[in-house]
């Protein structure tokens, strides 16, 4: 939705250049001993971020989700920017900001509410994006995300690459105008891309090439440990990134006894549940480049979703415990 001028002025929205969530720059020292990492942070830290929908919680409003994040031990919340904007229009920006502040929960990343992959309605949605981005930025989050399908039945690779760059460029420009960044997620599993007539971007290298082609200077990656693993890339590939290249992070684990190329995208596990994915190395590589943003568990676990359907708090707390285990194993506290 687009906020009218009066609401934007009430919110105190300001335009400006994009940056790292308004946080101070950080200095990082990493001492690695086998799989343990001792980290000394000055200024920025990684946040354990709850995404209710990612663990099977449906229909939960922003205020309740903030409280759940606090109760389950998360530092941040992946949120719906349209709902936040609606609350800002109804209650004022200060009231929405106070929901986060009072709970000790930071706004994490948010999905770009523009259906740019199909239809003509996306241009109307694009016109409303600056107002939504301004609300998110005023709340303290400059981290918007979207995803790229790893194939097409209509366009071969080069044609599809050009189409994506042209379609994403005005979206990224609209976000940049409000001081926000765009993280693009690639989809790694071979089983997901195989049915398409033409394969497309399915690697970290490919998505960073797209970021450069968009050319607005505020595009990077939503880096998911699952997709990095299933694409065939490794944590070593993260070393080629900077902190500004990584807009948001998802973590998860993979089922045991399934070959990498046979993994199915929506069948995963909680972080540290199986040990198939090298999450300690993954987090260490992120720490080494100075990443200081949200890290959200995205397990796509039928078992956890069944728990969430009956007891959302129990599901969130189980996800929170998995994140605590990851933090301890990676030496993050």
Key terms:
about 325 residues, alpha/beta, TIM Barrel, nine-stranded parallel beta sheet, two-stranded antiparallel ribbon, 12 helices, disordered N terminus
Describe this structure as you would to a colleague.
The protein has 333 residues and is of the alpha/beta class. It has a domain of 218 residues: TIM Barrel. 41% of the residues lie in helices and 16% in strands. A 9-stranded parallel beta sheet has the order 5-4-3-13-12-11-9-7-6. Strands 1-2 form a two-stranded antiparallel sheet. Strands 8-10 form a two-stranded antiparallel ribbon. The chain is globular, with a radius of gyration of 19 Å.
Cα-atom Rg, whole angstroms? 19 Å
What percent of residues are in strands? 15-25%
**Overall pLDDT:** 88
Query: What would you call the structural class?
Result: alpha/beta
Number of strands: 13
Shape: globular
Please report the distance between the alpha carbons of the first and last residues. 39 Å
Say which CATH homologous superfamily of the domain at 46-76 and 143-329 is assigned.
Divalent-metal-dependent TIM barrel enzymes
**Tally of individual helices:** 12
Please state the second-level CATH architecture of the domain at 46-76 and 143-329: Alpha-Beta Barrel
Helix content: 40-55%
Order of helices and strands: HEEEHEHHEEHEEHEHEHEHEHEHH
Characterize the largest beta sheet: strand count, sense, and whether it forms a barrel: 9 strands, parallel
Low-pLDDT regions: 1-43
| CATH fold category name of the domain at 46-76 and 143-329 | TIM Barrel
CATH hierarchy, class of the domain at 46-76 and 143-329: Alpha Beta
